[in-house]
Amino acid sequence: MASPDNQKQLTVINNNHGKFFGPVQVYMGYVFIAVGVFCAIYSPYILLFLIPGGFMAFTSTGTMIDIENKKVRPYTSLFGFIRTGKWTEVSRFSGFKIIKSNRRYTSYSRANVQLDMNISDISLILVNNNGTGKVVLNRYNNFEDARKDMYELKTTLLPLNNSHEI
């Protein structure tokens, strides 16, 4: 039988949205970490490379959803373990939107050749009436998964509101 503390933890959903920085910056963070570790035998000051490397390589974003208290918390996880963000009452929001988002990461080679990485996904967003307040709840690969989760969250978080979707 689950204790009350464990039962409360089950009502909080943690959706990780991925890395905060683009792929090139994340790779650069891993390079900083490797340089800091391997060159530490020459000077202990080179270990300072671990700080920006860890920040760039492990910082991510996400959203926590507290079903029991009807709150959401968009967060940035600094260094992969320090979560920053404020809890917001779901009552401030009026509905859901499902949108397709496209991100493009551009980098250049030494020969000045452009390399583009296009990433597209479907985002489930909690919005207020005038559209200014938005919280990305989760990201999906297809529209059906986003719609299924939207209907589940609509019944638990906003049971009385007329939620809409686009």
Q: What features would you describe in this structure?
A:
The structure is a single chain. This protein has a domain at 4-20 and 59-157. The protein is built from four helices and eight strands. It has helices spanning 4-9, 23-38, 50-58, 143-157; strands spanning 12-19, 60-66, 71-78, 82-84, 88-89, 95-108, 114-127, 134-140. A hairpin with a 4-residue loop joins strand 2 and strand 3 (71-78). The longest helix is centred in the first third of the chain and has 16 residues, at 23-38. It is globular and about 65 Å long.
Describe the SSE topology:
Blueprint (H helix, E strand, L loop, with lengths): L3 H6 L2 E8 L3 H16 L11 H9 L1 E7 L4 E8 L3 E3 L3 E2 L5 E14 L5 E14 L6 E7 L2 H15 L9
Antiparallel strand pairs: 1-2, 2-3, 3-4, 3-5, 6-7, 7-8
Helix pairs in contact: 2-3
Care to give the gist of this entry?
With 166 residues, the chain is of the alpha+beta class. It has four helices and eight strands; from the N terminus they run αβααβββββββα. The chain has a domain at 4-20 and 59-157.
Strand percentage, roughly?
Answer: 35-45%
Name the shape in a single word. globular
Report the helical percentage: 25-40%
Q: Could you tell me the number of beta strands?
A: 8
Low-pLDDT runs: 162-166
SS class: alpha+beta
